[in-house]
Design a protein that fits this description.
Blueprint: H1 2-25, H2 33-36, H3 53-79
């Protein structure tokens, strides 16, 4: 089971890095030159047309990212050892003295 967690985690990290790169490579909705000067984009006059390869790749990477995230969280719930504090011992208390504490002398001006 440990090797599978390692493989899924490696895949998850790789997909995360690829997803960041692909999203940064893509342009926004209004990438054309008219949008830079406040004009109306051609996308407002009709459908955008076919989905680009980068957009499809983003959808696939997003799906893989969600699947690996859910898989890792389910495995962490099953394999998890609970709280870290559960394995520690209680702090040792200092021995209490039976004599009362002597008050501090008054402060002088």
């Amino acid at each position: 089971m440990t090797i599978w967690i390692g493989l899924v985690m490696a895949l998850h990290i790789l997909v995360t890095l690829l997803l960041v790169v692909v999203v940064l490579i893509q342009g926004g909705e209004n990438v054309d030159i008219t949008a830079a000067f406040g004009g109306v984009s051609q996308a407002a006059f009709g459908p955008r047309g076919t989905v680009s390869t980068l957009a499809r790749f983003t959808w696939v990477l997003g799906g893989i990212f969600m699947i690996t995230s859910i898989t890792l969280s389910v495995w962490a719930g099953k394999v998890g050892g609970g709280s870290v504090l559960r394995n520690t011992s209680a702090p040792k208390q200092a021995p209490q003295s039976s004599a009362p504490v002597k008050p501090a002398p008054p402060a002088h001006k």
